[in-house]
Amino acid sequence: MTVAFSEKMTVNVDKLNKDIRLFPQVHPITPEMHITYKGVSRLVMLDRYSFKDTEKLTLSVGDFVVLTVKEDPKFPARGLGFIVELDWENKKAHVLVEEEYRHVLEGEEAKTGIVVRSLDVIEKPLEIFYEQIAKRNATGLAAVEQTEEKRQEWFEKFYEQLVSLNFVPAGRVLYGAGSGTEVTYFNCYVMPFVKDSREGISEHRKQVMEIMSRGGGVGTNGSTLRPRNTLARGVNGKSSGSVSWLDDIAKLTHLVEQGGSRRGAQMIMLADWHPDIIEFIISKMQNPRILRYLLENTEDEGIQKAAKEKLKFTPLTEQERAMYQGIVNYKNIPGYGGFTEKIIQEAEEKLRTGGTYSVHNPDFLTGANISVCLTKEFMEAVEKDEEYELRFPDVETYSEEEMRIYNEKWHEVGDVREWEKMGYRVRVYRKIRARELWKLINICATYSAEPGIFFIDNANDMTNARAYGQKVVATNPCGEQPLAPYSVCNLAAINLANMVDKEKKVVDYEKLKRTVEVGVRMQDNVIDATPYFLEENKKQALGERRVGLGVMGLADLLIYCEKEYGSEEGNQLVDELFQTIATTAYRASIELAKEKGSFPFLVGETEEETMKLREAFIHTGYMKKMPDDIRQDILTYGIRNSHLLTVAPTGK
Questions:
Q1: Which of 33, 107, 233, 544 has the most CB atoms less than 10 A away?
Q2: Which of 315-319, 547-551, 614-618 bottoms out in mean pLDDT, i.e. has the lowest?
Q3: What is the pTM of this model?
Q4: Of which family is this protein a member (predicted)?
């Protein structure tokens, strides 16, 4: 049996199935398997999610492989092909690259389609059909059930939802579940506030590196790091500031490889009250014109100073000046002497300014997304057009005892407002008109797509974590998961495109509910099946059993139902859809609690303590919006998962 993947070469399935016998995680190819995808989707499936013979135990001539087609330090291109010659002595292989991946090749390689590459950048996928991945995932996630009967029952239900693409776990689950490797199945991690010391930063950096090396994305809030030029008495010097230290953490993204063509992701946040906030907001601006605009159109000295520090000016040499003057001289000649009007205008601009503008440190913080944590006080100051204080604990004047308390407690508090309420001295570094800071955020977000904004007070008002005494610190890299310190979350999406009766042009709500119910259990099993490598993450994950059930294919659903996005009818349908998902998910979690127990953070040492925790849970900001029957059932039976829903970025 062969499967055609190229006009010239095909996969020998019989040979591949023999190779697969060495890997008990991998399910053999059977005749009914057919889902391979096309184009980028196929490459992503094979490169990122397929189980591979990483040690190349079975690699031989004729094998179908994933490889780095274009070797570029910044932008390598991956592709697919077949081994035509192996040189084990020099650890190289000749590979016939598939037609659709040859456009990046040059010279002789482009003519023949054959490239010579190191075995280090070549991998052999053993799962070439999506059904194999689905079976591995279903097997791995059903394995945590307590009896063989349950394991078989839930393997079948999990596989049915996976192979039909009704339910699509996030990439970490697709790649890791059932693989027997030590990669995490969790997409989202948030670290505690960074301890304000060299040791604290080093430890934080170490843990971020551990998480990213295993495939997780990490969120960090650096608001606990002392501002730039603040006295560091231990070394009798000045701090380089929070932003420079955060850049050091962000650089890990470029250093830590997560397999295949995938690199990790980070979110780095800073509070609006932090004295370094202006530098932070401007730090990723790559457009010198906008920096010049800020210099010329803001009255705030702090913004002007930060823009000036970021802006780089290179004076014209005499030769350059003469050259540009020569170009400008053609302005009044018909046809501009062959120069375009744009070139002449650019030459005039360079002569007017006397040089060329660019930016200092163009790679600064590029390893992370950045967001500003916005407080209620700041937004009120914006609305009222008031001044806003940038402040931080007054470490420069603290006594030895005060510094001891600061070193022990500040990173646990992480909020200058709470710190001040606790009776500790806070220094106001400067004041700024709130609207100037708000305007700066908007300008930079418009012209450099960053920073994002995170309404951290709102997140803490709404989170279910309030019930067990925890608060949100930051979000994961894509922003969909506001998490407490060391919290983690596994993601999955319901494929809404499959939840429509296309003949009747209506949502099949019964099918949707069945998918949600199976999906909640599948995600809950992820928490028990995934490997843990940081004890703090294990304690948090098993303690709150958080899952992130999301959606994909909403646009397709609306098209199939003939509803216009944003219309009154469309909005009503979306409301009903998400209400069904939310209530079904919470009811499914309650049913799981009856069978397996509530998440441990909702269980007290006595029945009375447990009831107090449940009472607190149903009175969190989010749970107050839930139907009464769900809230009452939680009081009676508990609930398996502390959080259940999210809207992560997905596509179809």
A1: 544
A2: 315-319
A3: 0.91
A4: Belongs to the ribonucleoside diphosphate reductase class-2 family.
CATH architecture assigned to 129-191+482-652: Alpha-Beta Barrel (3.20)
Q: What is the pLDDT of residues 84-117, one digit of tens each?
A: 999 999 999 999 999 999 999 999 999 999 999 9
Q: 2-125 in CATH: which number?
A: 2.30.30
Show the tokens assigned to 443: 């300008």
Residue 428: phi and psi, rounded to 5, are: -85, 110
| Confidence class for position 74, pLDDT limits 50, 70, 90 | confident
Peptide bond into 315 cis (omega under 30): no
Burial 570-594 (b: 16+ CB within 10 A, else e): beebbeebeebbbbbbbbbbbbbbe
Q: Per-residue pLDDT for 651 more than 80?
A: no
The secondary structure element, H or E, covering residue 110 is helix 107-112
3-state secondary structure (DSSP) of residue 627: coil
| Eight-state DSSP code of residue 193 | P
Measured between alpha carbons, how far is 32 from 38 in angstroms, rounded to an integer? 18
- Report CA 183 to chain centroid distance, whole Å: 16
483: left (phi over 0), alpha (psi -120 to 50) or beta: beta
Cα(97)–Cα(81) distance, integer angstroms:
4
* 3-class state of residue 93 by DSSP: strand
Instruction: Kindly list the distances between the CA atom of residue 455 and the CA atoms of 330, 375, 448, in Å, as whole numbers in the listed order.
Output: 54, 6, 20
- The rounded percent of the chain whose pLDDT value lies above 70 is 96
Instruction: For the chain, report the end-to-end CA distance as a whole number of angstroms.
Output: 31
Widest pairwise Cα distance in the chain = 92
Long-range contacts of 412-416 (CB under 8 A, 24+ apart): 412/192, 412/193, 413/193, 414/193, 414/221, 414/223, 414/224, 414/473, 415/223, 415/271, 416/223, 416/271, 416/273, 416/274, 416/391, 416/392
Q: What is the DSSP string of 282-311?
A: HTT---HHHHHHHHHH---HHHHHHHHHHE
8 is written with which tokens? 């010239």
Q: How many CB atoms lie within 10 A of CB 511?
A: 14
How far apart (Å, rounded) are the C-alpha atoms in residues 36 and 263? 24
647 in Cβ contact with 574 (< 8 Å): no
Return d(Cα 164, Cα 154) in angstroms, integer: 15
- Alpha-carbon radius of gyration of the chain: 28
CA distance 111 to 601: 63
| Cα distance between residue 226 and residue 394, in whole Å | 10
Nearest-angstrom CA–CA distance, 232 and 226: 9
Return d(Cα 483, Cα 192) in angstroms, integer.
10
For residues 14-22, give the mean pLDDT: 97
Cα–Cα distance, 530 to 518 (Å, whole number): 18
- What tokens appear for 599 in the block? 């998440």
User: Whole-angstrom Cα distance, residue 201 to residue 217?
Assistant: 18
Give residue limits of the domains in the chain. Answer: 2-125, 129-191+482-652, 193-285+365-450, 317-353
Question: Hey, how many other C-beta atoms are within 10 angstroms of the C-beta on 427?
Answer: 17
Which residue from 138, 189, 186, 143 is spatially nearest to 27, judged by alpha carbons? 138
Phi–psi pair at 108, nearest 5 degrees: -65, -35
- Rounded to an integer, what distance in angstroms lies between the CA atom of residue 558 and that of residue 571? 10
Answer whether 451's CB lies under 8 Å from 444's CB: yes
